[in-house]
Amino acid sequence: MLKSGVFASLLLTSVIGIPVASEARPVVPEGAPGISNIVPVQGYWERCRYLRERIREIEGRLYSAPPWERPRLERRLFERREEFRASCRRY
After folding, report:
1. I need a labelling partner for 27 at 20 to 30 A (CA). Which of 9, 66, 70, 79 fits?
2. What pTM does this model have?
3. Is residue 64 part of a domain?
4. CA 52 to CA 34: how far, in whole Å?
5. Residue 91: which domain range?
6. What is the pLDDT of residue 46?
């Protein structure tokens, strides 16, 4: 009788404890990961080469572009240069 009582109480405790444990939250609040200076290796040089090519292409098109297209091309050139500076230049 004692063994069945102990078994029943352990079974009841585990049945009650499982739903509580599955809804448990971490003790420390989760925050956003910090910004890292680690550069992903795969695709890094290809992306930088692609940006350099686009910058040169836009510069060439800007040289012979009609006046009404120059603001759009200048904006695209500025965006590509900023992206290149942010992701490809090493300090």
Report:
1. 9
2. 0.51
3. yes
4. 29
5. 39-91
6. 84
